[in-house]
Amino acid sequence: MTNNLPPISPAYRTKLISAIISISVFFIVYFVLILISLALIFLLGYGAVKIIALHANYLTLVLALGLFSIGLVVFYFLIKFIFIKNTYSTRHLIEVDRNKQPELFALIDEIVAETAVKMPGKVFLSPDVNASVSYNSVFWSMFLPVKKNLTIGVGLINSTTVGELKAVLAHEFGHFSQKSMKIGGYVNQAEKIIFDTVYNNREYEQTIKNGSGYWAFQLSGMISVGFISAFQYILKFFSDFIFKNNASLRREMEFHADAVATYVTNPQEQISSLLRLDLSNAAFNSSFLFYTESNGKYLPENLFINQAALMQLFSERNNHPYENGLPKIDEDDLTRYNRTKVEIEDQWASHPETHRRIEMIRRNTTKNRPENNELAKTVIRGYDEIGKIMTDKYLTLNNIKNVGEVIGDNERFMELYNEQYPLLKMSLYFNSYYENHNPVLDNVDNLFHTSENLAYNELFSDEMLSLIQEKNATQTDLFTLHQIAADPKLVKTFKYNGTLYKSKNAGKVIPALTKELDDLKSRLEENDKQIFRYYYSLAHDGDKEILKNKYIQFASLDREYDIFENAIDQFIPSLKFMLYTLPVEEIRKHRYTLLRNEKPFKDSVRQFVEESAYKDLLTIENKELLKNFIQSEYIYFNNDRYIQKEVDAIFTFINEYRAILNKSYTDYKEQLIDFQASIKEEY
Question: pTM of the entire structure?
Answer without folding.
Answer: 0.72
